[in-house]
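During the first year of the project, the team set up a workflow for recording each protein of interest as an amino acid sequence followed immediately by a discrete structure-token representation. This format lets reviewers and collaborators read both layers of information side by side without switching files. As required by the reporting guidelines, we include two representative entries from the current panel. The first entry is reproduced here exactly as it appears in our internal archive.
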Amino acid sequence: MNDDSTTMLIALAVLALGVVLIAYGTARHLLGFNPAQPKIKPILVDLEEVPAICVLHGWGRFHVVVFRQSGNVHAEHIETSATDALSRALSTFRRAKIDQARVIRNDEDALHFYRPYHDHRGSSEGKKVGWVQISRLV
């Protein structure tokens, strides 16, 4: 082997390694892997229990986003306290006759919960309330 072919082989190996690393990083990003956010197992609770387990508290601006099952935004609200934001989210769930929720994020900055089952009934499929995200605005 001469020097040109050895250099070309090393360059191809480095290029292949770079492509593999980029593909791996992109796949992790698209799948939602975030090492800074600890993984928690979703817990099923009654709606009346959500205020008791909620870590989100205090005053400030809170962004409440209600999503439909289809993923589209159903409603957005800005509240001035965590209690008001939680009340707004829970009233939306109660109005939709959802009496349980799966909490998937519960920390000082956000509370995310969704309906425990997907409703597949008729023409209204996807139009029903799916989940709520309450986030503290800075």
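The second entry, processed by the same pipeline in the following quarter, appears below.
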Amino acid sequence: MQTQRLLYTIIAMMIAQFINAQDVMRGFVIDKDTHDPIIGATIFWCWIVVFPVLATVLGAPSYFWAASKWQQFGVGTLFALTLAIILFVMSEIDFTQVLLMIAVGVVSDVVRQAIGNTHKRSILQAYPILPLCIIVWLMKLWTASEWYYQGAAEEISIDYAEGLKTLSSSWALALVIILTLAAGYSAIRIVSWLKKA
């Protein structure tokens, strides 16, 4: 019963973190009719670069709490699976992306297991890997660029889609991955430090 309650709490916290990140990003929009960007021409950077970093920072407290309580293999996998199911149901990702997200969660858990699930150091080393699930969500920008541009042009604006083209290069992908890993590394350490204080 205790494990089941913990599992439900973890899932509820993940959903709350996801919704929180979505609400923050909802403020960054381009008017579809007038094509006027709310915060200037760099709006596409917010979705592709800022959102993964923001989601990574917002997810760190939930992961730290869950991993501290559930000192067994599966915390990262559960987080990744929950995110994958939510995004798949919302038609945001396809089945390949679901499998990749789960793989990222498993890798995070393998790192944690290798260090030792009961050690705090395992949480600090495993968490920075987990936010790569967000990159999997956005990966179509790099793997199906034309499809991504067309969707952005239809949903938001042609200017926005043109801006996305500047981020579809391999250097931009590397930048997003590095920033997300750095944010995960920093955020989980800050959370750990705050828990000590």
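For the second entry, the following points were noted during internal review. The chain has a mean pLDDT of 79. The two ends are 31 Å apart (CA to CA). Both points are flagged for discussion at the upcoming steering committee meeting.
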